[in-house]
Each structure stands twice: as C-alpha cells, then as structure tokens.
Amino acid sequence: MENYNSTVVKEFILLGLTQSRDIQLLVFVLILIFYLIILPGNFLIILTIRSDPGLTAPLYFFLGNLAFLDASYSFIVAPRMLVDFVSEKKVISYRGCITQLFFLHFLGGGEGLLLVVMAFDRYIAICRPLHYSTVMNPRVCYALLLALWLGGFIHSIIQVALILRLPFCGPNQLDNFFCDVPQVIKLACTDTFVVELLMVFNSGLMTLLCFLGLLASYAVILCRVHGSTSEGKSKAVSTCTTHIIVIFLMFGPGIFIYTRPFRAFPADKVVSLFHTVIFPLLNPVIYTLRNQEVKASMRRLFNQHIA
Questions:
Q1: Which H or E run includes 289?
Q2: What CA–CA distance (Å, rounded) separates 113 from 250?
Q3: What transmembrane ranges does the database entry give (predicted)?
Q4: pTM beyond 0.85
Q5: pLDDT for the residue numbered 22
Q6: Any bridge partners for residue 92, and if so which?
Q7: 95 burial type by CB count under 10 A (0-12 exposed, 13-18 middle, 19+ buried)
C-alpha cells in the first residue's frame, strides 16, 4: 500500500439522500415529525425507569441504557441531515467526518453488545431462575455495562485508525447523507483492498456473528420456555419475541451494509436512513409497548404530574 504523509482534502461534500427537492422536503417533514415524537419517548422511558423503585431488575436497567444509547445514536446523523435538507451547500470537514464516523461506530458497537448482554440476562432469568439474583447482581450489571462501552470504543477506534492512515487528495464527494466507512474509503487515493477486508472483518463479521449468536440463544430460550408449564411462560415468550424483533431491526441493515464489498447499491441510502435514524429511536419504544410493567409505570408517572 502506498504511504502518503498528508491529506489534501479538508472537507467532504455530502450528496445527500436524494437530488430531488420535492422528495427532500417530504423526507424532511416526515423525519422531523418522527424525531419530535419518538425522541421524547426515549427520554420518557429513561425517566420512568429511573424514577420507579419497582423497575430495578437488570432487564429494566439495560432497557434504560438501550434508550440512552439509541437517543444518543440518533443525534449523530439526524440533526445534521435535517439541516442539510434545507441547505444549498452540504459540506462536512475532514475532522467532522472522522468524528461522526467514530461516534457512529462507538455507539452502534456498544448497542450491539448491549443486545448480547440482554440476551444473556434473559437466558439466566428463564433457564437458570434460581441463580438469577446471584449471577445478575448489581456489580455484574455495571461490569457488563462497562465492558460493552469498552467494546464499542475498541471497535470504533480500529475503524478510525484505519481511515486516518489513508490519504485523501480528491475527489471529495461522498455519495451519502453522512460519513460512513464504505463511502469514505472509496475516496482514498490508494489501493484500499486490504483496508476493506479489515473493515469487513471488524464490522461485518462481528455483526453477522453477533446476529447468528443472538438468534441461536433465543432459539434455545424459546425451546426451554415451550417445554415449561410455569405461569410466566407467556410473559417470557413476549419478552423474547420483542428482543428478536429488535435484533432484526438492529442487525439486518448492519449486515446489508458491512458484510459485503464496499460497492454502491441503489438501496444503500434507504437502508442507511432506517439504520441510523428510524430504527434506533423505535427500538426502546418497541420494548416498552410490549412491557406491561413499564407501561403501567408510565401511566402512574403521567397521572402524578397532572394530578
């Protein structure tokens, strides 16, 4: 691989989601409405879990962290995308691009690992209920939380380190509405074959293995629940089904984007839109709508404030 000592490109031009002004306006309105409705819902979930002494189980602890991660993740792309929709010049600096890319993979990697932790929590709760309080004690929960944040950081810093080694001397047009690995790598002024392989291994393979591992773990849990006659059977099935839905929403687009060679496909931008803006905000809401305890706690919190 050729080595360059400096990067000439100081900024990137974002080509955006579409070149049609009418479609841009429509998407701007829809995303803004969705953002203003769903984002406060995520913060309401966090407030509810933090304020209700009855929601202290590890499941709710991790659900609150999922809502925080998803809300933070949505701030990386959505606000700038909305501004760019009404801007004539869609430009992001080189440093701004690298920063956006870092936080995108830092929080995204952390969320993927959080879903693994939540699957482990459900496995212990359903398959080893007598050991649950011992295994999933507060110290273990905080240790797992620290581990997933650290894992997300390591995953992201590898991506950034590989990008920073690449020279960018032109062109500087990114065919997307935000900075991500596949589009940025293609603008490098050198052969990127080895870097692409490393990126696919770091992002794509990790995403695919987590996805398959999570599906396998929930298959084991559901088989165990199916053979059970306990009263909590329906609740366990409902919880696991919710987790599986979120797993498909989280990992499906990620597998599509990162587990293949970095070539442009017509569906890339739409998949990226759902992956970075829509699904992250929906994940905690899906959990909440299928969780009777959280919904009941929200109603009590609401009634207390209007009383």
A1: helix 279-289
A2: 11
A3: 23-47, 59-78, 98-120, 140-164, 205-225, 237-258, 270-289
A4: yes
A5: 86
A6: 12
A7: exposed
| Mean model confidence pLDDT for the chain | 86
What's the confidence (pLDDT) of residue 307?
A: 59
Dihedral over Cα of 92, 95, 99, 104: its sign: positive
| 19 class by beta-carbon count within 10 Å (0-12 exposed, 13-18 middle, 19+ buried) | exposed
CA distance 39 to 70: 9
3-state helix, strand, coil in the chain (%, to 5): 75, 5, 20
Does residue 178 contact residue 16 with C-beta atoms inside 8 Å?
no
Two tokens, residue 166: 């690449």
CA–CA separation, 243 vs 217, rounded Å? 11
Q: Are 254 and 105 in contact (CB under 8 A)?
A: no
Contact 84, 32 (CB under 8 A): no
Quote the crossing angle between the two packed helices 94-127 and 206-226, to the nearest 10°: 20
Placement of tokens 């809502």 in the chain: 67
Coil vs helix vs strand at 92:
strand
Count of residues for the chain?
A: 307
Summarize pLDDT for 258-294 with one digit per residue, the tens: 888 777 777 888 899 888 888 887 877 787 777 778 8
3-state SS class at 14? strand
Residue 5 is predicted with a pLDDT of 41
Rounded distance between C-alpha atoms, residue 292 and residue 125, angstroms = 18
Residue 228 CB neighbours (<10 A): 14
